[in-house]
Amino acid sequence: MFIQEFVETLCPYCGEPIQLLIDCSIPKQDYIEDCQVCCRPIQVVALTDSEGIPSITVTAENE
Fold it and tell me: In which band, very low, low, confident or very high, does the pLDDT at 62 lie, cut at 50, 70 and 90?
C-alpha cells in the first residue's frame, strides 16, 4: 500500500510554515529535506502508526 499525506510543520530555522509529503507505507523515516522558504537543511523523523497516521519531528540539521 502506497499512501502519501502532507503534514504541516514549522521550519526550525526561519519559523515559517512548511508542508512535508510523508509516505505513510513506511513506518519510520529519517532524512534531510531543505526548507521550502529559507532552503536550509532540516532533519526530518517521520513515524507512521499502525492506523497509517503520520507524526513528524523536525530539527536543525546539526542538533
Answer: confident
Query: What amino acid is encoded at 62 in this protein?
Result: N
Q: What is the pTM of this model?
A: 0.86
Q: Decide if 41 contacts 31 (C-beta within 8 A).
A: no
Other Cβ atoms within 10 Å of 23 Cβ, number: 13
> Within the chain, what is the greatest distance between any pair of CA atoms?
35
Long-range contacts made by residues 43-52, C-beta under 8 angstroms, separation at least 24?
A: 44/20, 46/7, 46/20, 46/22, 48/22, 48/24, 52/3, 52/24
Question: What single-letter amino acid sits at 30?
Answer: D
Using the predicted structure, report yes or no on whether residue 53 has a pLDDT greater than 60. yes
Q: How far apart are CA 38 and CA 35, in angstroms?
A: 6
